[in-house]
C-alpha cells in the first residue's frame, strides 16, 4: 500500500478548512499536542501540519489564482527519515506513512532541513518535530464508521478538493484522478518522489476583453451569423 | 538559513581542534624535531580536546529536546549526524590514550602511542568529514549540496589547526619551527583558494525555481498570500535574509580576518604576532561559518515567494 492524498488545484477555494480541521484533530491525536506560542499576543507562532498558500499563475488577462494546500507528501524517497540521527523519524513499510516518534526526537531540526516541502515544524512547547500523520489514528480506527476512516482534512473539505487513497492500487479513486487529470508532483527534480499529487486547474476560456465596436459592425456580424445558419 | 550561534561556535572550534590534533600527531610521529617535546605535545593535545569538547557541548545547545540527545548514536547506517556523534565519541579514548602515553612515557614514540596516535588522527578527520557531510548531503540547499563543502570544512579545519600548532610551538619551544611556519602559510593559501572557489561556484544560477516548486512551469508564478499573518517556524528557520551589500561586506571581512591579515602577520615570523594571527583566523572563520549559513537558501523559500534559490 502507498497511502497519500490527491489535491485538486482546480476546485480548492483556499478556505483553510483542512488546516483548521487538521490542527483540531491532531492536537489531541497520537502526536499531540500541537502547541502555539503566544496565541493571543502580538506575534503568534505555532505548529501546523498543513498550510495553504495562494499564488497568481500567469499574467492578465490569462492569470488565475491558485490555492495550494501542502502537508507531508509521504515521499517514497524520504530524506527526512535517513538524516534523522535518533531513529525518531521513520517510514512505515506497510503503507508508506512517514511518522515521528515523539518519545525519541531530540529536536535537532535536521529533518526539517532535509524536507523540500516545508512539511515539518518544531512544536514550540514540546521541542519535538511534528508533521502530518496522514491521520493514522483515524484511517485505521475501527470504532469509526467506515466512511469516516479518512483524514480529518479530507473529511472537512467543503469542495472535496482532497482525496485520500492507495496509490499502489491502479483502480483506486486517487490513481484514476492522477491518470485522468494528469496529476503532478511538486519539485520532482529533487528526486524525493512525493506520493501526494496535485491536479492542475482545468483549462478555462480566457476572460473576454471588452472591445468597443460600432453599431453597424455589430449588426453586420449578427446578420452574417443568422444567414450562415 | 538562520545561523544558530551555537552551531557556528561548534563547527569552528571543533574544526580547529581536530585540525590541530591531526597535524600535531602527524608531525610527532613523522619525527619533526620541534614536535618531540612532550610539553608541546601535551599542551597541544589539551588545547585540542578543550576546543573539541567546548564545541560539542555548544552544539547540544541548539537542540530543542536535548534529553533525547543520547539517542543520536542509533542511526549510524543512514545519518551523517549519527556518524558524526559516533566518531566524535570514539575519538576520546584514543586521544586520551595517545596523550597518556606521552604523559607517562615522554615524547619517544611507543607502539601504543603510535597506534593510538594514528587512530586519533583518522577519527579526527572522519568526524570533521561527517560534520561537513551533514550539510553537503542536503539536496534542499544547493549552496551546501556539493563536494566543495567537505573540502572547505577539512581545509579550513587543518588551516586553523596549523596556525594554533605553530603559535603553541613557538610559545613553548621558544623559537618558531620553520616547517610548521611554512605549513601554516601553505594551508592559509589553500584555505583561501578553497573559499574563493566556493564563493565563485555559489554565484552561478542553478537549481529549483518557483515554477518547478508549484508545478506551473509554463507561466509566471507569484505568491499572493503565505496563508498566515505572523511568522511561522518555516519563516524563522528558512526565511533568514541578509541585504546583498551586507553580504559583500561580510565576505570582505571574512577574507581579511581569516586569510589576509594572518598571512601578513605570519610573514613577520614573530611569536606574539603568530598568536594574534591564530586568534584572528578563528574570528574570521566564525564570520565564514556565519556566511555559510546566511548565504544558504533552502527550497522552501520558493513556496514563500522567492523566484529562485
Ligand atoms: S514531504 Fe517532507 S516530511 Fe514528508 S516525507 Fe517528504 S521529505 Fe519527509
Ligand atoms: S528533529 Fe527529531 S525527528 Fe527530526 S531529525 Fe532531529 S531527532 Fe530526528
Ligand atoms: S492527513 Fe491528517 S495530519 Fe495530514 S494534513 Fe490531513 S488532517 Fe492533517
From TrEMBL, chain A:
Record keywords, A-Z: 4Fe-4S, Iron, Iron-sulfur, Metal-binding
Annotated 4Fe-4S ferredoxin-type domain residues: 3-34, 62-94, 96-125
InterPro entries linked to this entry: 4Fe4S_Fe-S-bd, 4Fe4S_Fe_S_CS, ET_IronSulfur_Cluster-Binding
Record-linked SUPFAM superfamilies: 4Fe-4S ferredoxins
Cross-referenced Pfam families: Fer4_11, Fer4_4
GO function terms (MF aspect): 4 iron, 4 sulfur cluster binding; metal ion binding
Domain of life: Bacteria
Extent of the signal sequence: none
Identification of the protein by name: 4Fe-4S dicluster domain-containing protein
Organism encoding this protein: Amphritea balenae
Species lineage: Bacteria, Pseudomonadati, Pseudomonadota, Gammaproteobacteria, Oceanospirillales
UniProtKB/TrEMBL annotation, chain B:
Pfam families attached to this UniProt entry: DmsC
Keyword Membrane: yes
Organism the protein comes from: Amphritea balenae
Any one GO molecular function term: dimethyl sulfoxide reductase activity
This protein's GO CC annotations: dimethyl sulfoxide reductase complex; plasma membrane
Name of the protein in question: DMSO reductase
Alphabetical keyword list: Membrane, Transmembrane, Transmembrane helix
Parts of the chain that traverse the membrane: 7-29, 41-64, 85-105, 111-138, 150-172, 178-201, 250-267, 273-292
Organism phylogeny: Bacteria, Pseudomonadati, Pseudomonadota, Gammaproteobacteria, Oceanospirillales
GO biological processes: anaerobic electron transport chain
Amino acid at each position: 500500500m502507498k497511502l497519500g492524498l490527491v489535491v485538486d488545484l482546480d476546485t480548492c477555494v483556499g478556505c483553510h478548512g483542512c488546516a483548521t480541521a487538521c490542527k483540531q484533530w491532531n492536537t489531541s491525536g497520537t502526536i499531540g499536542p500541537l502547541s502555539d506560542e503566544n496565541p493571543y499576543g502580538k506575534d503568534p507562532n505555532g505548529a501546523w501540519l498543513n498550510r495553504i498558500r495562494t499564488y497568481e499563475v500567469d499574467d492578465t488577462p490569462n492569470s488565475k489564482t491558485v490555492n495550494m494546500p501542502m502537508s507531508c507528501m509521504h515521499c517514497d524517497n524520504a530524506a527526512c527519515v535517513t538524516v534523522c540521527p535518533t531513529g525518531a523519524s521513520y517510514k512505515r513499510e506497510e503503507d508508506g506513512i512517514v511518522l515521528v516518534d515523539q518519545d525519541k526526537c531530540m529536536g535537532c531540526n535536521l529533518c526539517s532541513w532535509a524536507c523540500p516541502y516545508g512539511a515539518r515544524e518544531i512544536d514550540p512547547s514540546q521541542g519535538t518535530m511534528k508533521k502530518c500523520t496522514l491521520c493514522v489514528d483515524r484511517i485505521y480506527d475501527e470504532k469509526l464508521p467506515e466512511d469516516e476512516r479518512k483524514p480529518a482534512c479530507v473529511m472537512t473539505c467543503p469542495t472535496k478538493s482532497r482525496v485520500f487513497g492507495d496509490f499502489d492500487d491502479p483502480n483506486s479513486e486517487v490513481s484514476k484522478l492522477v491518470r485522468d487529470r494528469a496529476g503532478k508532483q511538486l519539485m520532482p527534480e529533487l528526486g524525493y518522489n512525493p506520493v501526494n499529487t496535485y491536479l492542475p486547474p482545468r483549462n478555462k476560456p480566457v476572460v473576454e476583453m471588452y472591445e468597443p465596436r460600432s453599431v453597424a459592425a455589430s449588426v453586420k456580424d449578427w446578420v452574417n451569423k443568422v444567414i450562415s445558419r | 538559513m538562520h545561523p544558530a550561534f551555537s552551531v557556528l561556535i561548534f563547527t569552528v572550534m571543533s574544526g580547529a581542534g581536530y585540525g590541530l590534533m591531526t597535524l600535531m600527531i602527524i608531525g610527532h610521529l613523522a619525527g619533526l624535531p620541534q614536535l618531540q617535546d612532550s610539553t608541546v605535545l601535551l599542551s597541544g593535545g589539551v588545547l585540542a580536546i578543550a576546543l573539541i569538547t567546548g564545541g560539542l557541548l555548544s552544539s547540544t545547545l541548539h537542540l530543542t529536546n536535548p534529553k533525547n540527545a543520547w539517542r543520536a548514536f542509533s542511526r549510524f547506517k543512514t545519518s551523517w549526524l549519527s556518524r558524526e556523534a559516533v566518531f566524535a565519541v570514539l575519538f576520546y579514548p584514543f586521544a586520551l590514550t595517545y596523550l597518556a602515553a606521552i604523559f607517562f612515557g615522554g615524547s619517544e614514540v611507543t607502539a601504543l602511542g603510535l597506534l593510538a596516535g594514528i587512530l586519533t588522527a583518522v577519527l579526527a578527520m572522519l568526524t570533521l568529514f561527517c560534520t561537513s557531510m551533514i550539510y553537503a548531503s542536503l539536496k534542499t540547499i544547493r549552496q551546501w549540496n556539493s563536494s566543495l563543502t567537505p573540502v572547505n570544512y577539512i581545509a579550513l579545519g587543518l588551516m586553523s589547526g596549523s596556525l594554533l600548532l605553530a603559535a603553541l610551538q613557538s610559545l613553548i619551544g621558544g623559537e618558531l619551527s620553520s616547517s610548521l611556519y611554512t605549513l601554516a602559510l601553505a594551508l592559509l593559501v589553500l584555505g583561501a583558494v578553497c573559499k574563493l572557489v566556493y564563493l565563485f561556484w555559489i554565484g552561478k544560477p542553478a537549481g529549483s525555481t518557483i515554477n518547478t516548486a508549484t508545478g506551473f512551469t509554463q507561466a509566471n508564478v507569484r505568491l499572493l498570500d503565505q496563508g498566515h499573518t505572523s511568522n511561522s517556524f518555516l519563516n524563522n528557520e528558512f526565511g533568514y535574509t541578509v541585504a546583498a551589500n551586507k553580504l559583500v561586506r561580510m565576505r570582505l571581512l571574512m577574507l581579511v580576518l581569516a586569510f589576509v591579515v594572518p598571512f601578513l602577520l605570519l610573514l613577520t615570523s614573530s611569536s606574539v604576532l603568530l598568536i594574534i594571527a591564530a586568534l584572528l583566523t578563528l574570528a574570521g572563520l566564525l564570520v565564514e561559518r556565519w556566511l555559510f549559513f546566511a548565504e544558504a537558501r533552502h527550497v522552501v523559500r520558493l513556496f514563500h515567494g522567492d523566484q529562485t534559490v
